[in-house]
Amino acid sequence: MSFQGNAQEEMTLRAADTIKTVIDPNRPARAAFYSALVPGLGQAYNKKYWKIPIVYIGLGSGIYFYTFNQKKYQGFRNEYKKRLAGTSLGADDPTYGDFSDDKLIRGQKFHQRNRDLSALITAGIYILNIVDANVDAHLMQFNVNDNLTVKPDLNQNEFDYRYNYGLTLTYNF
Question: Distance (Å, rounded) from C-alpha 102 to C-alpha 96?
Answer without folding.
Answer: 12
